[in-house]
Structures are given as structure tokens and as C-alpha cells.
Amino acid sequence: MKKRREKTLTLSMAFTSDLPVGYIVGTDNDTLKLCGEEAENNIRTAASVFSTFCEIAQIINHAKCYTTLGIGFLTGHYTAYQNCCTARDWARNIGGEMNDLMGSNENDGLVAKECQFYPKDFYNPATGAYEEVHRKVLRDLDGKGYCEVKKNHASINCDSVKEKYIYPMLDEAGIYRP
Prior knowledge:
This protein is mainly alpha-helical.
């Protein structure tokens, strides 16, 4: 039996500084809004109840530390107290904690703002210098390198964003708008 020799085709696309690019960056960072209003309310209610439960457990464990005249530190009650404090604080600030998980307070509910666009200036570790990677940023009215929209990941694909940003970008790039 003969072995069949397979050919591999490699395609690559250069991201040159002449390529027109447009970025619409969402900044509505409330991740729970992505779930819908009813689910968001249910999650916030559950987090509030959980927070109260953790606070009660915190008080109980703190009291056990004091009633054992400090021996509670040795029995683990103090560690349980600290864990209850952490869980309570996390549940009370669920939105902020979710932002911390994404790595930024500025995000679209799922993706950090700084990951939603390719920066105009790029640090090239090979040369040790900053390079301007693209010059044709569409609708860059304020020099940021992107258009900022107070929308989240789910709501950014709407008619108002299309009319204000997408269609003007397409026109600016010379692409026909239907």
C-alpha cells in the first residue's frame, strides 16, 4: 500500500498600517444584565440572601472565638469567621467581583475594554520600540483608536449603533451601504 502524500496550504493575511479598521468598544460593564431582567433580579436577590446568611455565620464564628477565650483561633473558628467575611463581601459586591474576574472595571459584560481593539501603538519586543501598526482607524473622532459605546456584549448589535457607527465606518472605508 502506498502512502498518500498530503499537501498543506498555508494562508496568511498581513495586518498592515494601510488596512482600514474600525472598532466599536462596549463599556456597559454590568455582566448580570446579559442574563435578562428577571434572571438578573433573581441572581441579585439570591446574592443578597447568601450575603445575609454569611453574615450570620460570621457572627456565630466570631462569638465562638471570644467565648473560648482565644482558643477559637486554634480550633478554626477564626478561619471560618474570615471565610464568612470574604463570602459576604463577595456576594454584596457581585458586579465588582465579576469585573475583577474579567481583569478590568471597563468591559462590555464579558470582554475587557483593552481587549476589544487593537492598539494603534504596539510595543515590538523584538526591536524594543513602539510602532504605529495602523493609521486608518475609521470613525476615530477623539483619537482613542476606537469608538466607545455604553452598551454590553448582548446589546451592542442594535440599530442605533449601526446607524451611528457601523454604516459611517463602511462609508468611510468606501464600502457600499445597502
